[in-house]
Design a protein that fits this description.
The protein is an alpha/beta fold. The protein has a single domain, classed as Glutaredoxin (3-Layer(aba) Sandwich), CATH 3.40.30.10. The chain has five helices and five strands; from the N terminus they run αβαβαβαββα. A five-stranded mixed beta sheet has the order 1-3-2-4-5. Helix 1 runs antiparallel to helix 5. The longest helix is centred in the middle third of the chain and has 16 residues. The chain starts with a helix and ends with a helix. Keywords: Disulfide bond, Electron transport, Redox-active center, Signal, Transport. It holds the Pfam family Thioredoxin. Belongs to the thioredoxin family.
Amino acid sequence: MKHILLTLFIAGLTFSSCNGQTKNTQTKEPAKKETKMKTIHLNKIDFLKKVANYEANPGEFKYLGDKPALIDFYADWCGPCKAIAPVLEELAAEYDGEIYIYKINTEEEQELAALFGIRSIPSLLFVPMGEEQPQMAQGALPKPALKEAIDKVLLKK
């Protein structure tokens, strides 16, 4: 498990810089009636209700969700954060009903960023179900690496 995240971390460092190019990934498809899951922005109050109530359980991370989660710690000014944002939106739709993808703005939620020791962004926290502890990865990981981590760490595929 740690080997996977170490590999993802190294891959993330490789792909974490924005080179100024933009890619239009939008395609014209007929509108679908189904509403696909989108990333969910969290503030401290939402985090305490949906993820972990660290005020009630200091020193213990007890996940409150009913599905595994991926939490993106980001900032609006961060180039790599902007680069990974559309990928996370795509993954939220692809894994609709299987996982939650949360986003926490480190500029607005400094207490949460400090709680997790966020020193560089984007930082991604993988929160599996059960007794396993969350695992952190840093950098704007490419979509295939994120899918592999979601499948292996969160969904145990």
